[in-house]
Amino acid sequence: MILALLAMPSLAMAADEGLPRLGLSPAEPQVRSATPSIPFGINPAESKEFVLDFHGYLLLPATVGVHDRPITQRTDLINPTLPNGNPNYDYTGGGTVLHAPPLLAQDLRSFEYTGAVPTPWGQLNFIYGNKTVSGTVIMAASTFSDAAGYYNIPAQLGVNDAFITVNATKYFGFPFQLYVGAYTGRYGAMGAYDAGRYATPLIARTNSIGETITTGYKLGEFFLVLEQGLGGQLGRPPIGLMPAGWNDFADANVGATFVGHVHLGLAYGGLARLGLHYLAAWTQDDQVASGLVPNGQITVLGADAQVTAGRYGHLYVGLARTQAKDAATVSGAIEILNARGGPELIAQYLGPNSNGNGSLTTFGAQYDLSVARLVFDKLYTGMSPDVLVSLFTVGTSVSSDDKDYDGVFKVKVGGEATYLMKSWLGVSERLDHVRLHGADSKKAFTIMTTRLLFHTGWRSRDEFALHYSYFQNGSDIVALTGFPPGSGPNANPDRHVFTLSGTFWW
């Protein structure tokens, strides 16, 4: 993806500050920043000595869905000897029901996810080192045990990333940064400092252990950047392992998967960046439960551009082409639109009869503008009222060997306006529309979200919010329920969702 930032978020990211990034930093949180978006963490003072650095991010939402339960007749309690049955017992249900978590078509690993209703995230970054070499360990969780209705092991991510960073610029005479370890790579970040309003890398995400090298060369006002990476995984689901909750329903039919990627970017000052991206994930493993299987492959070719034009805001546009060939055995070492590996790509996009063969053509854009900065330019310091405007969209066209999925077009579009009226108070209105099958309104829904925002200061790193979201759902929209999640007969999604959330980052 072409962007990340000139300001690195932690000591582990502290490469030469003149080197533009082509992908979102592994240390960035897996959720979007609170409004207004600002860099995660702070730049520590450069040190020749080894020092300890610590950053974190907390998103803590309490969410409830409200729905009207239909009145249904219980035929097992009807007494045929009485007139009209038994009026005291032959009907059940009715009234208002409360769901926590709410029943929604908002699974992160599906296209319909918008991020309009926040979900929990906690992240702790521990970095030890100096400006030349450092080690980073990131602990994360997507739930918190004290408040959980059950102990969900896959949501307790534990040590999620661990890597060593080497900034060898002083040895080579030109910018040179090396990562070695287990970490995520996200390409196609639509936001200025995060993965965008949909919290989804547009081009691809990698989850591997290996290496990534980023280097560059200054050409007058331009900067040429090259990034290369190669990785695999620490293990694959062993033969005989049964999918279960404790192993996140692992699929023993996926093989050992490797992913290689190359990215080329051209930046012009701090104004604009262009990027080209190529990623290939493949497996050629005979140690799978189903026996001899064809080699699987997922390749991605993408291009994107970012313009950060000061008072005129931030614009991102991107395009990606994903090609899958016998992809059922490709593991989650690669993610496409948050779908992990071939099995989820098949389930979400290509269809069960595709044999993992097909393609996605994906586009996306996001534009963010501060009205106060537009009007006052450099006189605006962020210490006075402001109106923030954001427009965003993602769409993908499916070509598949499964005729029921071939030609499907999915698109989502949204906008949000935030008025920060006081140092401690703001209000936000957001509208999202999602279409899962082109013009078919039965497979479409709209979300209208109002948020009341509280802060401890103009430029504080905290946010406390009251949210209300109204869902207008097409008749074929269902929520995922159960374990593992699936669409059941009573999975009618909630229409009203209330949320109280707290966010803090440092």
Descriptive report:
The chain has one domain (11-505): Beta Barrel (Maltoporin, Chain A). A hairpin with a 4-residue loop joins β19 and β20. It is globular, with a radius of gyration of 24 Å. The two termini are 25 Å apart. The model is unreliable at 1-17 (pLDDT under 50). It is mainly beta. The strands form 2 sheets. It has an 18-stranded antiparallel beta barrel. Strands 2-3 form a two-stranded antiparallel sheet. The protein has helices at 169-172, 341-350, 371-376; strands at residues 51-68, 71-73, 91-93, 96-99, 121-129, 133-141, 158-167, 176-187, 204-219, 222-232, 257-268, 272-283, 296-308, 314-325, 334-336, 339-340, 358-370, 386-400, 409-420, 425-435, 444-454, 462-473, 496-505.
Give the topology, please:
Blueprint: E1 51-68, E2 71-73, E3 91-93, E4 96-99, E5 121-129, E6 133-141, E7 158-167, H1 169-172, E8 176-187, E9 204-219, E10 222-232, E11 257-268, E12 272-283, E13 296-308, E14 314-325, E15 334-336, E16 339-340, H2 341-350, E17 358-370, H3 371-376, E18 386-400, E19 409-420, E20 425-435, E21 444-454, E22 462-473, E23 496-505
Antiparallel strand pairs: 1-4, 1-5, 1-23, 2-3, 5-6, 6-7, 7-8, 8-9, 9-10, 9-15, 10-11, 11-12, 12-13, 13-14, 14-17, 15-16, 17-18, 18-19, 19-20, 20-21, 21-22, 22-23
